[in-house]
Every structure is written in C-alpha cells, then in structure tokens.
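quick one, 317 residues, struct below
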Amino acid sequence: MVPLNHPTDEELTRRAQARDTGALGLLLTRHQAPMRAVALSLLGYGPDAEDAVQDAALTALRRIGDVREPAAVGAWLRAIVRNSARMRLRANRELPGLDGLEQLRSRDDEHPERLIEQHAMRDWIWDAVEELPQQQRLVLMLRHFSGITSYQEIAEACEVPVGTVRSRLNQARAKMAKVLLSTRTQGHEDAAAITEDSRQEAEVTLDGAMRGQLPGEILELWPAETELVGVLNKEGGRVHPFPAMRETRTKGVTQHLRHVVASRDIAIWEMEAVNPAGISNPCPPSLAWLMFRQDGRVRKLRVVFPGTLSGGAQQPS
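---
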C-alpha cells in the first residue's frame, strides 16, 4: 500500500498537468533511474545516453499535458527516452533535443522556445537557465532555443572546439536538473516579458540601423566600450559594432528578424539577410547576433553565419 504522504504517479501527474511545478519535479526525480537505464541499454555508457535522458526531461516539462493515462506516466517517460535515443542512433546530423525532434522543424517559422511559451512551465525553466554560468547558458540557449542547433554550428558560433560544446552542454543539463528541483516551489520571473522586450529592441535597432539613425534610447544601450568580436572584426582589435552596421547599410543589405531568445544578459537575434541584385561578396542568407550584456547595456556583439564556416560558403566581406 502506498503511504498517505507518498503521492502516487497518477496524483503527481494530475497535479503537474494543473501547473504544479513541484509535482513535476518529483515525478522526474522518481523516474530518473529507469529513464537512464533505458538510455544506457540503447546508447551505452557515454555522453549520448546522458543527453538522451536530459532531453527527455525537457520534453516532459513541455508535454506533461499530453499524458492520457496518468498512472502510467513512468512508461510515458521511458518511451520519450527510448525515442530520443533511437533518433540519435538514426540521425545523420544532430538535431535539437527538446521534443520528439522531428516535430520541432515541422514549420519553418516554428521554434522550440515559442512552443514552450504555450505552457506554464516556461518561467520555471527560464529561471533555471538564468542560474547557469554564462558559457553554459549560451550553448544551452543555442542548442535548445535557437536555429543554431548542431554541435558544429554552436562550436563555430562560440569559437570553441566541439568537445567543449559537448562538455558545457552536459554540465548545463546536469545543473539545470538540480536547479529545477530546488526551485520548483518558488515564484518565477516572467520569461516571456524578457524575450518580448528584446524582440521590440531588435526591431527598433534594425530599423534605425537601416535608416542610419538609431533612437536615443537604443544608442544608450551601445556605449563606447561595446566591442564587436568574431568574424566581422577583421582588424582584430577593439572595434565598436556601429561601423559594421554602417557598412551593411551602405551595401544595401537588409536584415529581417526571424526569432529572438533572451535571458537577462544574453540575447540571440536570428535574421535573414536580403542582398541587392549584383552585389559583390553578398552576405550569407542567415545570420544571428549574439549579444552579451552587463547592467542592461551591450558589452560584446558577435555576429555569426550558421553553416558557412564548415560548409564552404562564401564568407561575409
């Protein structure tokens, strides 16, 4: 007989479906060992098995409302791990791991972060993300909430080896699991508001940059000490981002915002670039601004062009 103070899986699942984050945290803790056993049986010992378990936990956060038989939630969790592991075995290239994976790209304009926004667990997840060290938070945001998802693309965006990306992701996921459990009963900041503020800022910034006149409130966010880093900093020294913005405008290249994901001190703006006809050295069609902030102001900007560095495509001039 189950003790009165020990809720059943069915009770915890129904509470989790009613937006009780603590109940969901208890479910994941209770079933962590059998979930890991499934991953190990298919993938063996190594980082892929741990990745499959953590990906499945994040999927459960988003899809707990889909459980039709609450008493059988353990089997549902193990099935998610099994599907994640099998897709890792079949995949020809790495894909993001928040859902059953193939569904994440069912529409070109659909991002995992937008799907998560439909559920009450969003703010709990993002508060846990905020607890990560910046380097771990960046790779996790890219992997799970942006269109820059393969380990190779993330490595190029962060200018680190692929092995470092794997290590930081494993560390981030492990810390996420602990933070989620320790904060499940707390109040959480409105993550959607942070992203929406960043989206509005992106739209105003892009519009002003294309017109050659940024509003005063935007100029305040880009102080003189702001540094452009990465491939666009051809000189290699300390360079402010504004000259690169002016060069883009002079060439007639326009940038259209596709997706925004933001934490308190990291923002990722994903865009499409449209080049004028006949331009020499055109801008790659997809790019992203990675911004690192301090006290709300941009300290560093890295512009990355996913797929161009390893794919042999022409580099931006």
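Residues 92-120, 310-317 have pLDDT under 50 and may be disordered.
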